[in-house]
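Regression test attached.
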Amino acid sequence: MKKDEHIWKTAITDARPNSIRLRGYRIDELMGRIPYSQAVFLAFTGRLPNEEEGRLVDAILVSSIDHGATPPSTLVARTVAGCDVPLTSALAAGILSIGKAHGGAVEGCMELIGETVTMADKEGVSIEEAGQRIVAEAEACGRRLPGLGHRYHTADPRTARLFELAEECKFSGRHIQALKAIESAFAKSKGKKIPINIDGAIAACLCEMGFPSSAGNGFFIIARTTGLINHILEEWAREPKMRKIFPDSAVYDGEGDRSL
Amino acid sequence: MKKDEHIWKTAITDARPNSIRLRGYRIDELMGRIPYSQAVFLAFTGRLPNEEEGRLVDAILVSSIDHGATPPSTLVARTVAGCDVPLTSALAAGILSIGKAHGGAVEGCMELIGETVTMADKEGVSIEEAGQRIVAEAEACGRRLPGLGHRYHTADPRTARLFELAEECKFSGRHIQALKAIESAFAKSKGKKIPINIDGAIAACLCEMGFPSSAGNGFFIIARTTGLINHILEEWAREPKMRKIFPDSAVYDGEGDRSL
Amino acid sequence: MKKDEHIWKTAITDARPNSIRLRGYRIDELMGRIPYSQAVFLAFTGRLPNEEEGRLVDAILVSSIDHGATPPSTLVARTVAGCDVPLTSALAAGILSIGKAHGGAVEGCMELIGETVTMADKEGVSIEEAGQRIVAEAEACGRRLPGLGHRYHTADPRTARLFELAEECKFSGRHIQALKAIESAFAKSKGKKIPINIDGAIAACLCEMGFPSSAGNGFFIIARTTGLINHILEEWAREPKMRKIFPDSAVYDGEGDRSL
Amino acid sequence: MKKDEHIWKTAITDARPNSIRLRGYRIDELMGRIPYSQAVFLAFTGRLPNEEEGRLVDAILVSSIDHGATPPSTLVARTVAGCDVPLTSALAAGILSIGKAHGGAVEGCMELIGETVTMADKEGVSIEEAGQRIVAEAEACGRRLPGLGHRYHTADPRTARLFELAEECKFSGRHIQALKAIESAFAKSKGKKIPINIDGAIAACLCEMGFPSSAGNGFFIIARTTGLINHILEEWAREPKMRKIFPDSAVYDGEGDRSL
């Protein structure tokens, strides 16, 4: 070990000449043995997932891989790509648009769910009761409820599918129950249902698996990097430089509907 | 279809209210059925990988997931994270440091391999002969040979493992042969071996699977996003704000050596 | 005017073919007639500054132009520049490190000053009394006081000079008084003086001139862009690619001390 | 001086506790004595400008301060700003769109001018003859001529004004002559005039003042930072979050036409 005052510690990867270990495992041993999604789980948690965790993490990553030409991150990445700059410049610009208003609700929703479960535990009330109190408090102080509502979908198919998978994988516990309680209480208060969105469903599943809220947005960003990069490559392949990009004017002309 | 002059086309994802299809497949159908890496392959190529392609793409992504505290992207992401800014700011800054000098050699190496194979085909010479000519030309005009040499590893275990897997997956064809020919010719010219690095091995495998060179750096960046995000989260969890980050002073204190 | 639903309005610059007007003035008329700093003032406020305002804005911009090799933004911009990427990538990465913890205290300090002056007005107390209450409240709820203290300077010469100029320019009013009241109250509470830093001095001067707090960090960032760009150019001119950059190891070897 | 192997040198700013010197001058002495633009000149060149240089640098910076809602950098900065992220995120994204295709032609044009003047000197031909050869060579190998043509203006008023000022300031020498020779030769070859744009005019003036081409894009970026920041602040002040931003749909509603 180095004897100097500037030493700092890291527990992620031990990189030495001709040896690279992620959380203790040789990366060359992991290669060909585990899928990438399990290495992601390992990087975040320090352990390999069991089969159910692995399946749920894959579903979370697949759900967020792309959303076509509608999100601001896509429009930004394509606009910057049109300016004859490197891939990393266009990608970084797209990522910078991910925040509370777009793609960044997972973390806040995980905090909300955590508060609800904690309240139920501490005050000895049911999850439903805790959800009602959390919604009432949020409305009283004008706090938004991240994880509810989508400007595009009214019944996001990804949300339903993720909850279905969570149940199959035995992860349908108190955190998912808490978010559903919040959804119900909010619907009652508003007089109409503002459904759980995909960010909310991801948040609930990550809570079920024990992830801290700080990790929440990371999964969305990792997954969406693939979508943004493909939009940048398509912009370069199909469009002239410096074109004006109009939102709402994209038309899908790819593969027709098909099934696995 | 919209009747306006601003229409542009995209073949990646068809996002409509309550329906999102990636390259024709419903994302909610893909969830729970394919691992994330296969969705990545689908996004790039428009089709699902076969078993061998899927395994090789997973190995490529796992190989690049992190490299500890040594790369400039890690140091940059951590320095920015220490300034009390959002995750996306620190991540974008890290990504901006990925270029020809760090993590960005895949694309250039794919072009080099492509030129070698094309020359062999067009001029009716062996891959070995073509590799010698390409190296001679590169040296004559001072062109660097991306994919060879590493400032850290002399025998990168990831490189050997990736070539081993390529062979297992029946992807050990003329493109890998071409890069090895370039390595040999360069060693003869220099009087010492400058070994193929992980970027080179990834480049050769992507060529074998038929990817265009423009996609090359994308795989590295997608994979490394996970590493960068975990370094940012660790910086926040373990270090004070605005600390000075000294390269070479990181000490690994995580999980001990272990095996699958 | 366009007849479409997508119209949006902007009051900054009217750019038409062969005519560009900033806040109503032809840019070609402004060229050669006003210094850049006055055009900055015009862009922010919609009017040209008087002589005193112009002088104070110039002093603010000059004060923030660079701080050598110590700030994280400099180290980040140089590290990214060393990776063989465009100027804009290195500059953007440097800018992304500017936040509450570095260079971004102006806005928060302007809000603090504004609250103090408003309290004095609304509750009919003296600025000194309001400053004491604001500090007491901040300490009670663990709120930081932006604009006080510097990790590097104990008697920042820029702060004293800026207050001197503010007095010369007749801008030494209630906002500067408020910040000094906060400094005094905090010193009394802490038992030692935590002096107003340059961010604080800029904040007080911008308040005196009537700028909204949202504009605060902008001046620092505009000014520092010059410093960051020069560090990037120097990195390219003097250093090898991919070098390791050690904080605290920079030695100044430029022009010797001189005077106007 | 530190005795360690990690020492690196910088000649820009000497920052010590309670003393900050830019190129040898105390920043607190410069404050109130020189306008910001002269400090920019000092940062780049290591000396203070004379009156003519100062005036020309101010004109260059003023010319580039903003171009309304048309450039991609503005649209990108506003789109990102609409996503509820910090000022620096939106600004960095805007800056990342500045490249060869937008705002980044100054450097390339300076190189072009430099080659022309060097050819005239080395081969003993007139500037006009050298300009013709450079254009012929560029056309032969498909090289673009940066600094000519604008997608928006046919007679950019900033260009004419900058050349007028250059003449007033006695900077109308061989570099401006070279760019005009290139413009003429290109017009003759194309059969129609592709006029020098503002990037070209700035490039010629920076060459006249002796700046290296690497500094070229820096002036545009420094100046435009002000425009981008004001667009971000206006987006926040006037528009809802996550709005769709349509290019070509911006209408100016600011101050009416006025004169100094």
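Expected vs. actual: identical. Chain A touches chain B through 114 residues (CB under 8 Å).
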